[in-house]
Amino acid sequence: MDDKQKKRPAVVNGDGGIDGVLATAIRNGEDLCPIVRHAFEVGKPEVLVNQLRSIVKKKEVEIEELCKVHYEEFILAVDELRGVLLDADELKNALSGENSQLQDVASSLLSKLEELLAIYSINKNVAEAIQMLKFCGQVLNLCSKCNTYIAEANFHPLVKTLRVIERDYMQKISIRVLQRAIEKRIPAIRSYIEKKACSDFNDWLVHIRQSAKEIGQLAIGQTASARQRDAELRTQQREAEEQGRLGAGDCAYALNVEQMEEGSFIKFDLLPVYRAHHIYTCLGIQDRFQKYYFENRLLQLNLDLEISSSQPFLESHQGFFSQIAGYFIVEDGVLRTAGRLLSHSQLETIWDTAMAKMTSLLEEQFSGLEIASHFLLIKDYVTLLGATLKRYGYQVAPLLDVLDNCRDRYHELLINEFRKQISDVLENDTYEQMVIRKEYEYNMNVLSFNLQTSDIMPAFPYIAPFSSSVPHVCRIVRSFIEDSVNYLSYSSHVNLYDVVKRYLDKFLNDVLNEALLKIIHNGTLGVSPAMQITANIAVLEHACEHFLRQAAQLCGIPVRLVERPHGGLTARALLRATQNAAYIELSNLVSSKIDEFMDLVNNINWTAEDPPQMGNEYINVVCIYLDTLISTAQLIFPLDALHKIASGALEHISDSIVTAFLCENVKRFNLNAVMCIDNDLKALETFAEDKFRSTGLNNAEKECNLRDCLTEARQLVNLLLSNQPENFMNPVIREKSYGALDYKKVASICEKFKDSPDRLFGSLSSRNSKQSARKKSMDALKRRLKDFS
């Protein structure tokens, strides 16, 4: 076609053969637009119009010629058509006659046919009426059942019946009156069902709130029973381990199956909830019931979380926590068994609300408590509540965190209460050795605290090395440990023993040790009470091991872990320091008593004219006192402490003798006075030697003999009685025989020493006599000491 369009302009431009080309295009039905456009582009549209007119004329001529050729045939066709019309009229008249005859014959049959059709219509209407009556009878039967269910308040089949009527019958009821009546009554019945179900559910709400406390108490009681069984099993295990540790024999372990219970959950009635939820679900308004349930139960919880201001929390806390426990046990049952009535997120929201209020309430109540036992009562019930609800999947860590945060407050109250008990026990003690007359008393006061010195049962009456305050203090410490473990147990502590040990250390340091120091330093003690206190402290220091074992047993850890190195109490070191303070106080009291007996400045005639025949009278009193002191100490002190007490007393006597020579009131003394003191020293040395052997100190591998405690006084007396006292300046002799003496003291004492008695005219009678060698030596010693100083 494009090739033809390219050739056409050449033909047009030549104005030759254009009619043939244009006619061919028209005959073929081609598009004439390119030819027309070209004609206008070359500016010759008139030529194109003339050509088109020429073609039209040619076609008209062709049509006329065609009509002339077929004219005769057309005439013949018209004549044939006229013949056909005549035949058709004849056929129509024949058919009309036949029709009249047929209608005459069939008129009777048509009347019968109409009668038959009427009968058929009546039969159909009757069948439809019967079918409709049967259908309406079924509907009315269902309506009657609904009335019966309403009368019996049997809502579940009532709802099902209504659903059947609506689904299967309502749209098929052809009686409009009946259909309208049923359509009007069904919403009323639904509303009635909803109100009745809601009323029954409200009754359940009231009932379950009243029963929640009983449910909670029963569940908490089961937890307490399980805890008690666990404690008994742990006790049996500890006893078995202790027997095994002591080598008491084989330990038999048995499992008491009868006491084991499967996880028994509390039973309570949720049938009204199930029924109401199912009815609301069948009514298609379950969302409304879920919202109603959640809002009302949350309202009940808020009421349960309010405490009465008219009753102390200590008296109402069990009922309060039991109510909360019962509430959430019921909610757990609803969550698990009531379908989608309560979701996990809703229950978590309720629990978080309750937890926030309970923790705030506990913190407020704990801050106002002033008695540790009240603290412990509330704590025990809180831990039981936590353990109970934990069984149902609730997170109770915030409750335990409150208890942990208040543990310092509890122990502060506990320490203050036991501080007064410790103080009263120590102040009311007579500090005399405890006399135990019966075996049960021995078991109660000695064996129960591991205070025995031998595994052999003693003969009764038994005189213990401690006073009555020691077992009393041990009982108080045991009570403190038990109360501390009771508070800290069943909490979030990973290492309970370390925490209990820390508080035990604090109690022993801040309470027991301070009370002992107060008794020691109050200035009213005598020698015997001070001696008994010193012995008591040693026993208490030894009892610290028992306290640790008891804490370990109560915490449920093996005793062997307590006996490891560096696992003891720091209080033992403080008690040892306190014992040293008691030793010092005892030594001071003994020294004061000895000073009263001796009073050497007044009891000795420093310028006696005649040589003494025996020692001074005071030395017998001192020996008697020392004998009593050492004998008493021997009953209650170990050999180390006994040696310390005896050596301290003898050293003080030695110091007193040296101090007497140095006293300013003693202006001078002679040889007879020295000889008198020598006799006293001999008596003391004999006493010390006897006691060293009789008390068994000689078998204790002691490097220092009791007699050695008098060394300084003995060396001084020996020096004053020596024929050659100037040998003191010889380093070898001094180191061997006078090593305990001090230069300055010797110089001062020697200045006071006069070698002759103070007789009347004694100096005149001896004026021309030859000075003795002793006097010369003494004078030489004085000069050399003076030069040395």
Automatic annotation (TrEMBL):
Exocyst complex component EXOC6/Sec15 N-terminal domain mapped to chain residues: 51-220
Keyword field contains Transport: yes
Keyword Transmembrane applies: no
Domain Exocyst complex subunit EXOC6/Sec15 C-terminal residues, every copy: 398-752
Keywords: Coiled coil, Cytoplasm, Exocytosis, Transport
InterPro entries for the chain: EXOC6/Sec15, EXOC6/Sec15_C, EXOC6/Sec15_C_dom1, EXOC6_Sec15_N, EXOC6PINT-1/Sec15/Tip20_C_dom2
Main localisation: cytoplasm
Short name of any one Pfam family annotated for the protein: EXOC6_Sec15_N
Any one annotated GO CC term: exocyst
UniProt subcellular location: Cytoplasm, Cytosol
Gene Ontology biological process terms, A to Z: acceptance of pollen; Golgi to plasma membrane transport; intracellular protein transport; pollen germination; pollen tube growth; vesicle tethering involved in exocytosis
Family: Belongs to the SEC15 family.
Role: Component of the exocyst complex involved in the docking of exocytic vesicles with fusion sites on the plasma membrane during regulated or polarized secretion. Involved in polarized cell growth and organ morphogenesis. During cytokinesis, involved in cell plate initiation, cell plate maturation and formation of new primary cell wall.
Annotated protein name in UniProt: Exocyst complex component
Provenance organism: Spirodela intermedia (Intermediate duckweed)
Lineage: Eukaryota, Viridiplantae, Streptophyta, Embryophyta, Tracheophyta
